[in-house]
Amino acid sequence: MLLNVQEFAEKDQLTYSEMADALEYLYKLDYHPVAVKFFWDEAEFNNFPAEKVPGPKMTVCQVALASRMNNYIVKANADNLMCGNAKTCLGMREASDEEVEGHIKYTADWDMAKECLLAKPMLPLGKLKGFMTAPLSKTPVEPDVVFMVTNVLQAYHIFNDYIGGKKVPTLQFNHTVNSAVCGGMVYCYNEQKPNMTTMCAGSYTSGKTEKGEINVYIPGKDIGLVVKQLINRMAKYGGVSMVGSPGQEWPGLHVCKKCPMVKFKDAGEKQNRLKAVQ
After folding, report:
1. In CA terms, which of 22, 70, 223, 231 is 20 to 30 Å from 134?
2. Cα–Cα distance between 37 and 237 in angstroms, integer?
3. pLDDT tens digits for 14-68?
4. Degrees (nearest 5) of the Cα angle 53, 58, 61?
5. How many C-beta atoms surround the C-beta of residue 46 within 10 A?
6. Residue 133: which residues within 8 A CB-CB, separation 6 or more?
């Protein structure tokens, strides 16, 4: 195994690089977990040493994909964003009747569309100066939110490890008619609770999420306890999977649960029986 689980289990505190290694390797993630940081001070944002900034205006989804797929530390502000929904969720503009018009397609009713818009998670108006996305392994600052794009079984294991590590018995998530990534991370930050969202139209088409993945958000302050719970389970059972009997390396064999036809035995078992008969 490339990851020394026992060594990680014996550590009191893991680095963000070690956390990222554990998340990516043990959950078999397809993408890097992304650290998200909100900047409330203009000078702090301006002086932050990012590797990349958007060229043309982009969506939050596109900014984040540079971190989760290309391993870049990116920063952006209102001038870099073309997505109006993201600007509203990030408190960079006030919700308007014009924006309601873009939501009617979800509800076929103007008043309901306005209610859906105003119910979205939002940061305080005019306070945010910019934000950073970075691969968790490279983050130079403590993240406010850790954002992951996963399949459903990976999400199942991540949230179960949050429950085990945080000692809370259930979780509830916040779904909005769009603004999946921007609104999803803002909800996680505002409430300091995990969140899960499906892809919205924008995140599906511009965020490179065409394989049916979902969005997972963990408060930055809690990502360490999620990883610690993951490591402790791995050290105890020998595998990350919670599906069926614990101890399998992959988080969920894609076969019927407890099917008697799906059973493996030692390769030498048949030969040993034949020798005994002879």
Report:
1. 231
2. 34
3. 999 999 999 999 999 999 999 999 999 999 999 999 999 999 999 999 999 999 9
4. 95
5. 12
6. 34, 35, 36, 63, 64, 66, 67, 68, 73, 74, 147
Instruction: Give the strand pairing for 214-219 and 145-150.
Output: antiparallel
Question: CB under 8 Å to 273, separation ≥6 — which residues?
Answer: none
How many whole angstroms separate alpha carbon 42 and alpha carbon 53? 16
Rg (CA), the chain: 22
Could you say which DSSP state residue 221 is in?
A: G
Among 21, 30, 17, 20, CA closest to 3? 21
In this predicted model, what pLDDT tens digit does every residue of 72-100 receive, in sequence order?
A: 999 999 999 999 999 999 999 999 999 99
Residue 178 tokens read as 């769009």
Distance CA 175, CA 33 (A): 21
Global pTM reads: 0.91
Q: Alpha-carbon torsion 264, 267, 271, 273, what sign?
A: negative
The Cα 190–Cα 238 span in angstroms is 36
Amino acid identity for residue 254 in this structure: H
Q: Indicate the helix (H) or strand (E) that contains 188.
A: helix 180-191
Structure tokens, 210: 């065409």
Q: How far is CA 139 from CA 12, 91, 124, 188, 228, in A?
A: 20, 24, 25, 19, 19
**Exposed e or buried b for every residue in 68-82, given b needs 16+ CB within 10 A?**
bbeebbbbbbbebbe
List of residues 6+ apart from 274 with CB closer than 8 A:
none
